[in-house]
Amino acid sequence: MSHKATNWLADINPKELTNAEFRILFVLCDCHNPSAGCFPKQSYIQERTGRGSSSVNSALSTLEDKGFIRREQKKNKRSGRQETTHYILGFEFEKSQEPTPNSGAGKVGAKQEQKSLPTPNSGDGPDSGFLAKPTPVFEQSRLLKTGVVYKEEPVKEPVKEPCAADASHHQDLNLVLDEIWAAYPRKGDQLATEEAARALIEEGANPADLLAAVKAYAKKSASYDESRVKLSQNFFAGDFWRRHVPVAAKVASRDEILQARAKTILEGKTFLCRSITAHAAGECITAGLVTPQDCLQAGIAL
To answer: Is the pLDDT at 231 greater than 60, yes or no?
Structure first.
């Protein structure tokens, strides 16, 4: 959870939220990353809150109606499939800014400066003649510079945001699902097909094996009547798909295995790197193919 999300959530009046809305908003804030945004799957929200699909959807709608969140839903230009929802939290909304009186830019009729007493903190130099209403950008009073300098330390964001790191994981996984859908010879229900493939991957199946099996089956069934070709959502049922995973022509050498593993780590595809153990990553580090920092950035805990 980022500092901004934490502070924003803490400032919300509890009376404005139901229990369900607060629990879901807490999960969204926990998944927020300052640079990557907030992209949790709805199944993840349900798991974290212990609530069903209809309850989550209802709470998300009321949170949006109350102005606490906005949802951006986009479709993949190539496949037309809906991508992971982007949740925008209230503190991220763009706010129109009033012009400062010094520049007078924007609004007509800037306020006139008025005479005032010296600053109470230092007694050094006069106040700006403008009223002590904070500026909309920096939220500081409009005092002229004096001899006293106040230094504000920058807030450091957390180094690792597990949920937002999952955002890149979801995006990489979506690319694989797009390739599987595009390569399959007899398309059926796209959503059911992708959910079946996603479930296998989350159970530990290698995404590359799923894609290779689809391509091999497409080649094998090219001469079949369409009625003999399995519908896409049925291809991943049971172990049928495993029969079509191509067998490697040769056994890779240890060096080839390490190089392939290091390539996966350096590419940073988290859903593939999750199958790499700390020991396996350590072998690549010892061989000088990757650094510990490369492994940590790929989501591998050493």
So the answer is: yes
